[in-house]
Design a protein that fits this description.
The protein is of the alpha+beta class. It has helices at about 5-10, 40-45, 55-60, 65-70, 105-130, and strands spanning about 5, 15, 20-25, 25-30, 75. The chain has a 5-stranded mixed beta sheet. A hairpin with a 2-residue loop joins β3 and β4. It is elongated and about 95 Å long.
């Protein structure tokens, strides 16, 4: 009979000197394998404290790598202690309505921008005419 661990118990083993992973509902003590892992030890240590099944499957491990896992098997995980995956839903944001842009500001800018350009042009003309 395999020992059953909770996620809290497995999460305590999260260093490169003591590293346990949860993959496929099973708990593995991969501490001895950290130095030999082709992806480096930090990849394994970063997968501690959670269900690392997706991380393991996304990489596409070979059949020999999957078979090698059996020597590190130490027990099963109590699946009720693993939080369920919640699908990300973005927060509701008000839609941007271009018609709500203040018409007053647009009309004011349409009037002021040409007026400022004209003022700058007259100022430059006046300054250059008086200095000669």
């Amino acid at each position: 009979m395999a020992k059953v661990f909770t996620l809290a118990e497995v999460s305590e083993h999260n260093t490169n000197k003591d590293c346990w992973l949860v993959i496929g509902g099973k708990v593995y003590d991969v501490t001895k394998f950290l130095e030999d892992h082709p992806g480096g030890d930090e990849v394994l240590v970063s997968s501690t404290g959670k269900d690392a099944t997706d991380d393991f499957e996304d990489v596409g491990h070979s059949a020999s790598a999957t078979a090698m896992m059996e020597e590190f098997y130490i027990g099963d995980i109590n699946t009720s202690t693993i939080p369920t995956h919640n699908k990300y839903t973005p927060p509701n944001q008000p839609k941007y309505d271009q018609d709500k842009t203040s018409e007053f500001i647009i009309k004011l800018l349409q009037f002021l921008v040409p007026l400022i350009i004209l003022g700058v042009a007259v100022g430059i003309r006046f300054y250059t005419k008086s200095s000669t």
